[in-house]
Amino acid sequence: MTYTHLTTNELVMIEAHYQENIKVSDIANALERSKQTIYTVTNYLKEGYSAYDYITDIKSIRNAVA
C-alpha cells in the first residue's frame, strides 16, 4: 500500500464528520483511510483548530523539511 497525503477535500470531510460526532471508524471506512490517520486529524481539531489550519501547518512543515 502506498502512502498518499490527505487531500483538502478529505480534510474538510473529516472536519464535517467530526463536527457531526460521527465515529472515527465510520469516517475511516467512508474515506478508505486508516483510523490512525483520522485520529491524527480529529485530535488536531479537538485543540480548536480547523481543517484550513491543518493544511497550512502541514504545508509549512513540508516546506521546512524540503
Automatic annotation (TrEMBL):
Q: Which organism is it from?
A: Streptococcus mitis
Q: What is the protein name for this chain?
A: Transposase IS30-like HTH domain-containing protein
What is this organism's lineage?
Bacteria, Bacillati, Bacillota, Bacilli, Lactobacillales
Domain of life per record: Bacteria
